[in-house]
Every structure is written in C-alpha cells, then in structure tokens.
Amino acid sequence: MRVGICLPIGERGPERRADSYRQMRDLAVAAEQGGADSIWVADHFFYNFEEGGMRGLWESMTILSALAEATERVELGPLVMCVPFRNPGLIAWMANTLDEISAGRFVLGLGAGWYEPEFEAFGYEFAKRVSVFDESLHVIVPMLRDGSASFEGSFVKGQSELRPPGPRPKGLPILMAGTKPRMMALIARWADRWNSVWYGLPTDQFREERANLEGACAAIERDPKQIEISAGVQVFNASIVPANTAESLSGSVGQIAEGLNAWREEGVDEVMCRMDPPSVELVSLITRAAEQVR
C-alpha cells in the first residue's frame, strides 16, 4: 500500500494564515526524504465560514508545477481538480506538461466540484457541473491516452492533437473522486484510480461506496480490479486527538501504523494523509508509520 501526504495549500485557523510556497516545499521534500509515495494538494478558490470569514487557497496546478521541480521521486497531483473550472483542452495540456516537468510522476485527479459558492462567485453553472464533467472526459481522457480528441457536445468541444507528446506513451494515471450513481458510472468507465475522503479508520460508508463502484463496473462489464482504490485519511496531532477513531488517526508512530495497517487490510492501494496541523514533525510520524506497515 502506498502512503501519500496532503500539503496545506490554503488559509486556516482564526488568523487565516496560509503556508508560503517555501513551507509547502519543505513539507514536500520532507515527505519524499521520509519515504512517502506521493504528495497532493486541494483545488479550490475559497471556503466561506460563518465564523472567521473567507479562507482562500493558492492555485493548485501552479503549486504542483513548482513541486514537480522541487522533488525527484514522489508522485504528485491534485486531490482533486474541479473540472468545470477549466477548459478540458487546457486541462489536458497542463497535465501533459506537468507530466513532462516531473519526468512521468504526475497523477491527474479529477472531480465535478461540490462547493456551490465558488461556482456562483465566478460564473460557473453549478447545476450542470456533472454534465460538464461528463463531456469534458470525452476530451481529456482521449487526448492524454491516445494523443488526440474529436468531440463536440452541448457544453464541451475538443478537436485537436496533443503535441508535443508527454513522457509516457500510454498516458498518465487518471484518478477520479465521486460517490453518487452518475459519478460512479463515469468513474467505472474512465478512471484508473478512485478516491474517497475523509476518514480515520475504515468505515461502513467507505465499504458501501466501494461496493457501489464495483456495481458500476459490473454494469459495463469492467473488472473492478482494474481501478486502484485510495482513501483520504485525516491525521491529527496527538495533542488534539489522542488515539485513532473513525474520523482521524493520531498518536504515536505505532498507533498511526495500526491505523494505516487497517487500510492495508481493507485492500486499499493508497492512503493520502491530510495533516492537522501540518508540520515536518507530523510528516515524519506518518512516514515512519508507513515504513512499519511496509
């Protein structure tokens, strides 16, 4: 089982403090040096909270481009990119370029979005977001896997060849997130990997979602073993949460290792760890726990 680290990319806390790129870079380098398999960042404009006002985020693909140069071994990607925020041809070109910068380490995480205020703020249509996502896949996936797309739908058009070709002849991995029936059907058709978030220890909700994906695969006669399974897991500082729960992992290296091992026994291919609060010290705890599980 692979273990990844989710980096802090936005403002947090009462003071709405955002980590600088240098701080994110330090965490990414610590993750790579500690033996982590991947690094991930969220893709949002902002969140609004009743208490404390708006919290914004750095732009994900720009940060990932810099981190691709700052690292040498780990996979990296958005968890996950909101497809309706960008033209699908642009998404394919950006992903292909990032795969080149990283020498074949980029994973394209894709989703339809869920936070309506972001859509309203910048004029994106929230009600049709899954339709936009659906049609966008007819451009993004063929361009990255086959090098070209020829599609014209109600929301999306793609008529082009992707050049120059990226470093991987068969294209880069495509990870998708979603839980509702329509999204599960799209994931079953197009995805190499599926992701569900956020958990501590494995739950019945996760198992039900996984069973739904297997059902969606059966409906199109695709072997569900062709899709890797990943889970986003929250890892808290032990001073906040003293032990593992269904909502988060915490504690000593050994306690975190027990939590990670529960996911390994669940048959999950990768766990992405979101830290609270993020620190080099917590990265070290997670990577040492991952080494114990391996």
Highlighted features:
294 residues; alpha/beta; TIM Barrel; 9-stranded parallel β-sheet; two-stranded antiparallel ribbon; globular
Protein described:
There is one protein chain. The protein contains 9 helices and 15 strands. The chain is α/β, with parallel strands linked by helices and 294 residues long. It has a single domain, classed as Luciferase-like domain (TIM Barrel, Alpha-Beta Barrel). The strands form 4 sheets. The protein has a 9-stranded parallel β-sheet, with helices on one face. A two-stranded antiparallel sheet has the order 2-3. Strands 5-6 form a two-stranded antiparallel ribbon. A hairpin with a 4-residue loop joins strand 10 and strand 11.
